């Protein structure tokens, strides 16, 4: 599978044409459907500072991107509180309460999402959300974005034996939708999520909303786009349509 940088349109187009006929599109939720990472970062930064993490020095956005974004809470708990994982789990639970309050007031869709939603519906494609987010978070974000009736399945990392970056959540989505990995497309925004999609053998497009491009490229996405308005994405989908026809 071709891996191209954010600026290489010709390779990006070529890499999607091979998916024809496209059967399904799978989406991560946090940072992929909605711009939620700033809310997560704010909650983690404020709450970790309150408990004296890192000597009371606030975590940076780089620390958040490298160690927290896209990861399952169990892994985050072990990373932040390696000597007291139960405390880490409770901390993450409390942080999610803060996040949901922020999200209920401030959540916004990634630019171009509803344009892509219509394209997917118009083409009769199968679709699922695949997320490491806790169930209450996933339900809140999906419903707030008006996507509850759009997704035919929602796969939670908490309901799989292994969460992302393991491929199991995406493989489960393919099984539930009865879709083949060779004709499915994934949208992701984190290193953890891209690794999961790539490991599942599915073409995975990275969204460079918040996480650094060079970090995402290390996970070997098919290519990167800035948002769902990115002309490169639509050039690729148009080429895919022509191939399908």
Automatic annotation (TrEMBL):
Q: Which residues form a coiled coil?
A: none
Gene3D superfamilies in UniProt: HAD superfamily/HAD-like (3.40.50.1000), Putative phosphatase, domain 2 (1.10.150.240)
| Record GO terms (molecular function) | catalytic activity; metal ion binding
What does this protein need as cofactor? Answer: Mg(2+)
Keyword terms, alphabetized: Magnesium, Metal-binding
Q: Which InterPro entries match?
A: Beta-PGM-like (IPR051600), HAD-like_sf (IPR036412), HAD-SF_hydro_IA (IPR006439), HAD_2 (IPR041492), HAD_sf (IPR023214), PGP-like_dom2 (IPR023198)
The superkingdom of the source organism is Eukaryota
Name assigned to this protein? Haloacid dehalogenase-like hydrolase domain-containing protein Sgpp isoform X2
Task: Report the gene name.
Answer: LOC115736874
